[in-house]
Amino acid sequence: MTQLRVHAPAETSNHLSQLRKLADLGVAADHNEPFGDQTWVELRAGRAWLVSTGEPKFTGAAAIVIPEHPDHPVVVELLVAPEDRGNGLGHQLVKAIKEILAQHAAEQQTVTAWSHGDHPAARLLATKAGLEPVRVLYRMALEIDRESFGDAIIPQGYSIRTFVPGEDDAAWLQLNATAFADHPEQGQLTQADLEARKTETWFDPQGFFIAEDAQGIPVGFHWTKTPVGSAAGEVYVVGVHPETQGTGLGKALTLHGMNHLASSGLEKIVLYVDDENRPAVNLYTSLGFGVENTDVMFSSRS
């Protein structure tokens, strides 16, 4: 049996280069990032457990984020190297995850796990672990075949500018929390989370757009993301204040950011959206996006 190593949160930052190499193998084979942005933030900050197999080269790994507040769900993400699949490593990792949760999670704390790409093997693991599918996230994509996707018609009384790091942080965090009050992850971002993203190589304030009302108050935003070396740019997050919904501001912000990405020499634009967010899915479909991938969240509480 392959030896498993459990790395406590204080130790995980020492193994991130190994985990990144494993993740890159997963991306090459599955065309999906196996670990989400927030998971990397938690790992770097020493707030997540890590279970690994293989040394010095990881053949499998699982990241486990256990929030201190018992009402906030545990998040689990797992990857087995493509060449090592089918040998039971996934089951061994799940067993180790259960042991960590039994010792460190609250008794009734909900456990969630992502399957990026909805792979049959991941679905089987989740089912055997007693988890059920509760959320579907689409990755939609659009090939860039023009310099512009059309004029971003900004509703009267609003204007769009770029984000100013430091000066806009507090107002943006408040707007983000309001716009995503019902969102299980996005609406809970903190200053520390924002600071962590500012240190990422892909962070560029020139691709982070803020919509203001006539009083200069931020009421919407479109944060784009282009990973270094990638041919695809991302509609990372689009949000508007609830009071502006129905004005066309969200579409204007979306087009504004898309045009920015189109002028950056990229090949396509991608985005992620919940399947139940039909207004957003319909908007992106009307702009030419199509579903190219599906992520599924499994949960211990259906």
From TrEMBL:
InterPro entries associated with the record: Acyl_CoA_acyltransferase, Bact_Acetyltransf, GNAT_dom, Mycothiol_AcTrfase
UniProt keyword Acyltransferase, yes or no: yes
Domain of life assignment: Bacteria
Pfam families listed in its UniProt record: Acetyltransf_1
This enzyme's EC code(s): 2.3.1.189
Classification via PROSITE patterns: GNAT
Role, per record: Catalyzes the transfer of acetyl from acetyl-CoA to desacetylmycothiol (Cys-GlcN-Ins) to form mycothiol.
Protein family (similarity comment): Belongs to the acetyltransferase family. MshD subfamily.
NCBIfam families: mycothiol_MshD
Name of the protein in its database record: Mycothiol acetyltransferase
